[in-house]
Protein 1
Amino acid sequence: MTCFIRYILLQVAGLRSQGMKLRHLESFLSQVDGFEAPKWGLEQYLTPPHLAARVLHCVASYDDLEGCAVADLGCGTGMLLAGAALMDCDETLSVGVDADPDALSTARGNLDKLELNFSLLQADIVVNNGLPFRRVISEGSNFDTVIMNPPFGTKNQGVDMLFVRRALAFAPIVYSLHKTSTRDFLMGCGAAGCGKHVQAEVIANMQFEIPATYSFHKQKSVNIDVDLFRFSRRNSEDMEEAITG
Amino acid sequence: MKNPISQGKVVLMLLVGCLEIFSLIPPCSRPPRIPLNSTKKYHQHAPTTVVMRLITHNMLKSNVKGVINGFPLRIEAEKVEVKETEFNSEFVQNLLPKVDWPALRGASKELGMDELPEEMDEANKTDDSFLQLVHKLLLDVHVLEGSLVCPETGRRFPINNGIPNMLLHEDEVA
């Protein structure tokens, strides 16, 4: 009997601690400032803290966060990076990349405010030779994990897949948010157009609450179903082919 | 009896009591690194945290159309800052295989920092004072203002407030 009660209590305590962590992460992330003037051309939407916290929890549950060098392509104002820092990724080796100087300057403010130690980089991910990284092949990759919320490809079709491919060039594991309505497309294209060398799986289904951001948004806010994808290279030797193919 | 307390109720009360104790003692999570109600001022004009470290420089190359290698980028620094961080020899050891040694050596020279040996040998990899030097160069030396210069075309990529701007012009895109 006592054993049973102990067991129940431990379970409850465990759940509580998880819930606490999630709540703590979420309230920490609510301090992250959003875009001052979001640009529709870049499909800039702030990842809601609630969603970001859950994404990072999923990533952490796969053991791809603690002590890892993380990159965020299209980091915007740095929401996912800030969360990754709280979950103990390796800040000094982590980088946020964005093309928009305004977003980057807000990101800088956020990192300053939250006393985080990331590097930021201004580069265009969409153009072919946009990412200025040399390829570290001898010993793993430039980064351990990429966590990103790329444009959904509503304005520029195919941008979401481009982001995934670029990310896979510099990290063996990529977590990425995509619209659920494009799931079949992403899976069907041989894991985001990377052929058989990349494994894609949907590890969570979430809701992205988009408040009315742009003038053409009629409703106050819309909930969009999104999938958290986990892309992983099957074999590092196939990397070249996977990315260029 | 006016106030009947059944055995079930006693167990229930005990359980609730236990739960309360549990909620009083915070579960074994690490303390937050940054207190949520941090009163630290938001200093927008004196950025301190966003910087370009040499480890980042070590990963960057010039992607201008037609460039073959584009690596390593020359550093023309205008404002450099050295901020000491905690040293961990194992961490640096794990980092070494990812580092391009000649590039780090060149960067260190360009910034007028300590001289590094031409080659890194096995003895170096376990020598703490050597690792400390590498740690300082890779992680503690920060370039705040200046430019990165493509070794082949001479194209300059400006570093503003610690953020390198690697955006390409239209005619540089492949």
Protein 2
Amino acid sequence: MERVAIIGASMTQFGQREEWIRGLLAEAGSACLEDAGVSADAVDHLYVSNMASGEFEGQTGVPNALAHDLSAVPAYTARIDQTSSSGGAGVYAAWQSVASGASEMTLLVGGEKMTHRSTAEATDVIASLTHPVEYKHGVTLPSFAGLTARHYLDKYDAPRESLGKVAVKNHKNGVDNPHAQFQKEVDLDTVLESPIVADPLRLYDFCPITDGSAGLLFCPESVAREYADEYAVVSGIGGATDTHVVHERADPTTMGGVVNSAEQAYEMADADPDDVDVAELHDMFTILEFLQSEDLGFFEKGEGWKAVEEGVTDRDGELPINTSGGLKSKGHPLGASGVAQVYEIYQQVIGDAGARQVDAETGLACNVGGFGNCVTTTILEGQL
Amino acid sequence: MSDESDTGDDEQTMEAYRYPDGSITYPGHPFGPGGEEPTGTVDLSEYVAEVVTWTTSTATPPGVRQPNTLAIVEFDVDGEPVRAIGQVTTEEVEIGDEVRPVYCAELRDPEKGIREPASQEWDGFRFEPTE
């Protein structure tokens, strides 16, 4: 199997954007090609990670639209929808296309346009992934987070403040990310006194609704040096699912998809959690950073909150988590998020993360769809 | 599939499926553990449950009551644990509370959400504390 390299990356400004989905995708797609110095006609496969452009905007067929807008026709195209983990699934598809030999050059662009919808409407679009017995009760992704957070705090005797400290940490990291939706710090009192959204979680425990796009360019490692002095190798990748009906899981604080996808990625990379120098986790809600950091094997079950309390996951800590600001601060344009997570890890392992740079040779991104329903875990190693 | 419960045609049931290994799920699935087809159904509305966790959601989607208190509860069906999720009839609920299912003809307004109204049922059971 061919080793796969990432030789270019891009990310648009995240936040409230005037552009619609086609414009956002074209912005990231063209910037990614430019970053690698590769022309559009060299692209064999073009994947677009996107959850719901039809539901949000009434625009379907976005991969073909992007191929035309970038002048990448006749590249093979496909839309990758795996809800909030569409980006991670796109990374998996792009890696697969090159590793299998089907493509010599694959462009992945993830994007979503959401902010023209009200919070209630956007919440409903996202909640449409739920099972009918969940949907009819008005269950939303934020309500899953509230249910799980209460259970976690009770089961592991964790203080409510520890969740707030995830938001404080990630907002602090976001200050140095020029693409982040929020580039400002928040203090713990502000988090803990913000309006309740899904008790015990409050407004600052949740990521915002966001427009944005991000891109990655993949090719066989054997030709990577032709395009880039520094590049990253996809040394490990894994994908897995958990139950569609969330309450059927044996332990509400364990995400089986994270556990299983991480096992695959570690095995492929011949690595273990101790080898990871930096990680981007899917902090759509603060509680998710605890669950993933434990299910990825960074910390014992029920101990993730202590790592945040002790500063282990700070940017200058032993294992920096969400140096980009995470979804919490950077924003969460659904289909873009998993791509943007890998963008951050790529920047870190090639030493191009600027003010956010940490000492990292190996990085991991974990992208979660639904409430752990679908997960992709990706490990990158820098080649300098 | 046999129906283990004895309910009249006019009674509403909270139907769970039982599988060959003895496990029970709500909702039921065409295939259970090991890919086995279900062997029967259980009406959970005849049982009480214990609250595993709960939340009150204040940012609800179109057509959903606001606030919306939800709970994951666990039934004990002759020693077999079965979990379910649903609305709670009150905001006064705690982990460990005992609740019983109470029927509601329409849990949210089917006309106001993104999902096609004809694609699923909209009635169901809320959970009411027994004390």
Protein 3
Amino acid sequence: MALVDVRNVWKRYPGKTVLENVHLKVEEHEFVTIVGASGCGKTTFLRMILGEVEPCQGVIELDGTRLVPEPRADRGVVFQRYSVFPHLNVLQNVLVGLEFSASPLLGRTFGRRRARNVECAERMLDRVGLLSSAKNFPAELSGGMQQRLALAQTLITEPGILLLDEPFGALDPGIRADMHDLVRELHRELGLTVFMITHDIAEGFSLGSRLLVFDKPRIDPHEPDLYGATITFDLPVGQRPNMDSVVNGINAGQEA
Amino acid sequence: MEIAEQSPTRREARRREARTRVRLLNRRPGNVGSLLSAAMPFALAVVVYVAASGVRLAENPDDKLLPSLSTIGETVERVAFEPDRRTGEIILWSDTAASLQRLLIGIAVAAAVGLAVGVPNGLLPWFGAFWSPWVRAVSMIPPLAILPILFIAFGIGELAKVMLIVLGTAPFLMRDVEQRVRELPREQFVKAQTLDGTTWQIALRVVLPQVLPRLVDGVRLSLGSAWLFLIAAEAIASTDGLGYRIFLVRRYLAMDVILPYVVWITMLAFLLDFGLRKLNRRCFPWYGA
């Protein structure tokens, strides 16, 4: 059974159809990149999987159960901006996810429990290379560091699905390459299923294991908003499957 | 081509002019310049006052409208440093204590109400559906128009005066806080939910800390009207307070009391505003950064 199962999903707003007839099955551990012209429903689609937006029609199932239209802890998210809390320092930003589940009343932990959480958060910060900035506020970080923080903050609660809405759109090319490596590694290490929207087609091809293109199959020139977009291409990309088979081959050779 | 022919002369003219001219909007005073510029209007006001007062006093030494600085100085010494013959208290200080107490209690209650109503109004759609339109309607009531109701309902004691300040400033603060909550990026709310935060936890750890410095800013803005309502209430029904004193001595045209009182009130208002700004800087270093 597919981890994410999207069947015949539509999203209409008054006078405008955003998405029509979207079908998609995504297995666990897939890295799905999503490209498409701006305003063609990529973000709407991501927000549906997030639970923030409800489809007008159709079904989205996660792990075989119908998705509740509300963001939940099984799906982490990083946006292009505003992903971290400006009033918390770097450590607190990562800590907050642990504290929410540990302390229903105050959303804060103290004493030994806090120390344990801090340890855990510091390991995560170390993993994304932010440990030395633990006491800084997000406004004092560069754009790339802020996105690293957003990743750490999300991943600390161990979501199975990671949703990325143009997370590197505002970063310099060099920093972006570093972030690609980081995301690729985290995807592998943590066994994540990733959905990532990008404007950068090269990024879409190189980073993921599967590329979705959103586009409008029909256009009424007199009323451009009449028809919505859907998935027009669904391509396996990247070298990952090949690499796996190569690795398996080598392993098999060694065992023999 | 004509355009090409013109340009050498233009360039020439520019070269000659541009070297010397800097636009007015790009010229700034230095540190000393800023200080002197800021002090100038104040000094000017004092000079104009002294001159005008001198002219009037030369015509009529008993003139009360613009007393001389020395007369004002004597009066200040009397009201600020000598105990009153009747009550044994130093008038300026007892007035200040009474007024500040009303003002601070009023504004504190208003801020608490603003927070208690504004946060749920902005955060919870159902709560807002009930109370947001009501708050908007109530905030249109001119507080001074219901001052008589307050005196009837709460008597002419402290409660009515504090209530006037609360009713005068709380509606603005409620709406302001609601607006500030709505302005928080939706991404933050989504993020907090994906971290498993409950509504309560999100209110406590995401909304409240971010709204507090904005509330302090809101309080700073509403201090002006708080002073207005305080002085209005004291002028109408009171036995002490800065506003009471000003309106009391008005009957004797005692400008030598009124003027220093106005200056004193202005200084208090400035200090309160300054203190709140410092408080924001110190308590919320991430804010406005």
